[in-house]
Design brief:
The chain is an alpha+beta fold. Among the domains are: 42-74, no CATH class; 81-105, no CATH class. It is built from three helices and two strands; from the N terminus they run αβαβα. Strands 1-2 form a two-stranded parallel ribbon. Helix 2 (52-61) links the parallel strand 1 (45-48) and strand 2 (69-72).
Length: 105
Amino acid sequence: MGSKRSPTNFLTLTLAFCAAAVLPRARATLFTDPSALPSHKAYDYIIVGAGPSGSVLANRLTENAHTNVLLIEAGPNDAGEFSLEVPLLASQLQPNMAFDWNYTT
């Protein structure tokens, strides 16, 4: 007889997945003002550019809990910019926004 799936098992797996996604970010800090950076903090790695490779590299390096990584990304804070979060809305972005940084194809 096969095992039955219960809502409790589904809920447990969902919570475990969410915790695994959130916990690595618990050590991250977002500084929007460069003067707010700690002045005497030492970093093992400094990565400039949080594009597809920069953010992945920073994530991989921080798998070691004893490694300090500074990831620098230029531009304004885009939190809450719905048109940037939904790929389908990218066509509605106006040219020369503060977020496009002269991106051309």
